[in-house]
Structure formats: structure tokens, C-alpha cells
Amino acid sequence: MITFWLLAVLIVASAVFVVSAPRPVYSVLGLLFNFLCLAVMYLTLDAEFLAVIQVVVYSGAILMLFVFVIALLSSGVRPFSVGPNRLPRILAPLSILGALGLGGLLFVISESVTPTPAPTGAATAAGNAGVFGSVADFGQALFTTYLLPFEATAFVLMIAVIGVIALAGDIDPPRPPRSKPLREREPILKDGS
Amino acid sequence: MDVAIANYIGLSAVIFMIGVGGVVARRNPLVMLMGIELMWNAANLAFIAYAKAYMSNAGHVFAFLVITVAAAEAAIGLAIVVIVFRRAVNVDVDDVSVLKG
Lengths: 193, 101
What we know:
B: Helix Hairpins; 0% strand
């Protein structure tokens, strides 16, 4: 109960932040937080696979696409390489810090790893196929009862890929005949708009 | 289920209306697309909440399909944004009226 209300407040607050943030990058960060909270809420609703998909597809793929487009569109506004490169100056302390951190991490992992006990009956991956919301249950439903809509999503994605290529793909201008030398070609006219 | 289904549906409606508000109020096409993503997620939350209420897998499968379509929509929408911004530097979607009849 307390989990639901905590998550609900976080989700609504981050959603309001998404639509009211002054810059699109802040909106993307708010949307990332919103999606992660929603993934936790899916876990509380026994939708394990969808929680993972929420993180991987939404937070990983779609939001990365948003960030990429923002970076692409604002690339002409400000040069990318502003200021001197600070990496050589901080390289020595950074490498020492990194080596210490890696060593500590490996030590902690080597201390904490214990041989896992053999799964007992119902805990195996195939054993909980009848449990509602488990990944095995979802996969069985997806590939038996709902196989046709699952295949239809492949067509949806393919149409989307073709559409994106047709929209934003860089189509080569028609080449002039090869008999004319390169220097005497007329410059490619830009359209008036 | 200790939380009533109505709470999840209410939360879903709130997220949906925030997304609608973002699409209607903001003029930045990227923020408008993010509002549409919020609306997709509100629909997904409703599907998953009802799947839990009825103990049925169909809601999960449909939410999976919704995520797929949302990914396709985001890709195409961002492609349109890129080609619009490639031609004009303007940020206001009200000025993008080439397709107006």
C-alpha cells in the first residue's frame, strides 16, 4: 500500500516535470525517472517481463533516441568541443582512483560470492510456468495463444523502419553523366524554401 | 491485491491527462512526443492493472504490443522532427504548416 502511494506521487511529480521543464533535456531526465518508477510499479503488479522491457526498451532505446535527436538538433548551435581537454591533467589521479575502486570491487565480489544452492523444485525457470506474471508464463502465452499478434508486431516494426528510411534517409542526388569532367559540373541547386 | 484496482486506473488517468496537457500546451515537438509517450505508459499501466485484477495474461501481451507500437511511433515522430528541423531552425510547431490544405 505504502509502495503504491510513494510510487504514485513520484510518477505524477515526474510526469508534471516532463511537461513543464524549461529545456527538453530536463524533460528527458524526468521521463527516465518516470519510466523507472513505472517499471517498479509493474513489478508490484506481478508483470516481471514487462518491467524489464520497460527499462530496456523505453529507458534504453526510446529515451536514447530522444537524447540523440536533441544532441543532433542542437549541434549547430554550439560547437561540440568547447574548452580545453581536461583529461590529460586528471589522468594520473583518475587512474589511481579507478585501480583502487576496481580492486575494492573485485575484493568485495570475491568475498561475497558463495556457491548458490541447487534449485529445489518450484524455483527453477521452467517450474513456475503456471505462476501468474512469471516470465515463463508470459512467454508461453505470447508464443502459443498470441502468436499471430506477436508476428504482426514484426510487420509494424518493419514498416516503421521503412518509413524512417524513406523520411530521413539521405537519398543521393541523381549523378550527372560520366562524360562530363568533375570540375565542370554545375553546383547542385538548393530548393527555394 | 491490497491496493484497489480503482487506484491504478485513477493514476493511469492522471498520467494520461498530464500527457494530453503536455501535447496541447507545449509547442516544442520533442516535448509533445514525450507527452505522447506518457499517454502510452498510462495505457500500459491500465492494461497491467486489469491483467492483475483478472489474473489474465492477455493484458500483459497487449501491453507488450503497445510498447512495440510506441517504439515505432517514437522512431517515426523523431524522424519527422529531424527532417523538419533540417529545413528550418524554427522551434514552433505552429509554423510547420506545409501540409495544411
